[in-house]
Amino acid sequence: MQFQWYPGHMAKAKKAMQEDIKLIDVIIELVDARIPYSSKNPDIDTLANGKARILIMNKSDLADNSITDKWIKYYEDKGYFVVKIDSKNGKGIKAVNGVIQKACSKKIERDRRRGILNRPVRAMIAGIPNVGKSTFINSFAGKACTKTGNKPGVTKGKQWIRLSKNVELLDTPGILWPKFEDQNAGLKLAFTGAIKDELYSFYELAILLIKFLSENYPSVIGEFYQIEDFGVSESEILELIAIRRGCIKSGAKPDLDKAGRYLIDDFRASRLGKITLEKPNCD
Ligand code: G4P
Fold this sequence. Notes:
Blueprint: H1 7-22, E1 26-32, H2 44-48, E2 52-58, H3 65-77, E3 81-84, H4 94-103, H5 105-113, E4 121-127, H6 133-141, E5 146-147, E6 160-162, E7 167-170, E8 174-175, H7 183-192, H8 202-216, H9 220-225, H10 234-245, E9 248-249, E10 253-254, H11 256-268
Parallel strand pairs: 1-2, 1-4, 2-3, 4-7, 4-8
Antiparallel strand pairs: 5-6, 6-7, 9-10
Helix pairs in contact: 8-10, 8-11, 10-11
Guanosine-5',3'-tetraphosphate (G4P) is lined by residues 1, 58-59, 61-62, 86-88, 127, 129-135.
């Protein structure tokens, strides 16, 4: 699903988040492990308002593992409980329940001291569009869960998914807006397909991705497309990809937009390998 954000949408999303946050003990925020800074909502710290915080590095199957580990440390140092996950294949999901208990240990202890035993902690999922919220909820909740809904004392209409004896999850995730005022973040969101492709042509995106890859993963393009890409410019590399992929338009000219689309699709599907687009403290 692609989203267009306007000020009205943002205000509505913000209000919905503020209402939902009142009902929960812990926010489980999803980011894309390939862009853990750019896919993180800029305003969630204010919205979270002192609630326990868990950060899920989702799509970790697509990201560069050693950089993911650096990001985990970076966010742990900022006070988050962090887990890396591949929601599509369910990898890492099992750890989440334990992390929720850890993140809410103060509240659980407070309840216990007041004689309240076994009150489940309530969690909500939040993140920008396409980060994998629905996939995560399906994978996390699995088939074992039961919907509880409309409980006394809970806002009418809210549905809760009972995940275990100890955890209930709000079944509608909070949809957060991306960092679109930051051009650099916007570009990375476009590389991963998180924001509308129309903002950049595939040609533009491909040229910028080739530049990034040449600097950070220098052997990837040459190896994947079987081309000699040494000492040539980004647009010449794209021409070589076009020729290799048979993207030729009338007049026997390489079709660079089509080749650009192939390159971006190959990147998004991780056919080029596990690639992370940003490192901690290097933005
Ligand atoms: P959202 O609710 O946050 O908007 O995201 P959603 O779950 O719809 O996921 C968006 C896309 O990301 C989906 O791909 C989904 O399969 C993919 N995805 C989610 N989590 C992961 C993950 O951990 N790893 C990988 N590799 N992909 C993930 P799609 O192409 O839109 O759909 P589909 O063809 O996969 O069904």
